[in-house]
């Protein structure tokens, strides 16, 4: 045996030892037969399947989560045919029936004629990273939800109101369905605070949100705090008559709640004044028209003696 041959054998053994001592799992697939030419023994420690059970690409496909399979296989085959190195994340089935997240990093090897000869790559266990990403995503969603929520009452805030109004206005343009908005104000709320104190006033606001938000609205409707003791109800696909019924329902529910308000100039119980506006969304006017119109009608309701609804 020549020195060069001996050196090559030693080098090959060294490379094999290095590959099989890493946490990453090396593998090689012959492109013509789509069979595994090699896969590292680490695969058994990670997934539980014997090293010798990885015979062809079919074994790789079958041991992939059904929800990931089509996306990942189509992507990897297309990239490989095009000779493009690529990466893919997916859930791999373990022998015990559970799943772990895998990242496959793939290098496409070409022959002297430029044709795809084989694929070589590494599998990495990224389960911990995925769990961290999911936690961060969940935290991001929670923070986003908080950014759209009024901190005192739990109702949507003005930012959320503006966003939903824009969205529902666009939806109404497409569907040709009306959009309604109710501006709602607690009558004589300053006197309530003066009589009972601001902490009791905060409780009162929360009670109004609870009564109106849980009993008067449909899942798609939105209750938002507009400012102070003023709230807005966005009612998608709702005409004037239906919106008026919602407003009447809100008044009735508050009356049933029988929240004492001895300092009110209107009634010994808490009451509401409301302005109702309805529009057929179009490009001619902006969604702010609803807010402005409902607010003007709310003002008229308060000027007319409070504890009433103005819808035109």
UniProtKB/TrEMBL annotation:
NCBIfam families reported in the protein's UniProt record: GGDEF, sensory_box
Cofactors named for this entry: Mg(2+)
Domain GGDEF positions: 177-312
Cross-referenced Pfam families: GGDEF (PF00990), PAS_3 (PF08447)
Protein name: diguanylate cyclase
Reactions catalysed, as given in the entry: 2 GTP = 3',3'-c-di-GMP + 2 diphosphate
SMART domains given in the database record: GGDEF, PAC
Family matches, as InterPro entries: Diguanylate_Cyclase, GGDEF_dom, Nucleotide_cyclase, PAC, PAS, PAS-assoc_C, PAS-like_dom_sf, PAS_fold_3
Matches recorded under Gene3D superfamilies: 3.30.70.270, PAS domain
UniProt cross-references to PANTHER family, sorted A to Z: DIGUANYLATE CYCLASE DGCM-RELATED, REGULATORY COMPONENTS OF SENSORY TRANSDUCTION SYSTEM
A GO MF label: diguanylate cyclase activity
Species annotation: Bisbaumannia pacifica
EC number(s) recorded for this UniProt protein: 2.7.7.65
Domain PAC: 86-138
Annotated ranges, domain PAS: 11-72
GO cellular component: plasma membrane
One GO biological process term: negative regulation of bacterial-type flagellum-dependent cell motility
Domain of life from the UniProt record: Bacteria
Chain coiled-coil ranges: none
Upper taxonomic lineage: Bacteria, Pseudomonadati, Pseudomonadota, Gammaproteobacteria, Oceanospirillales
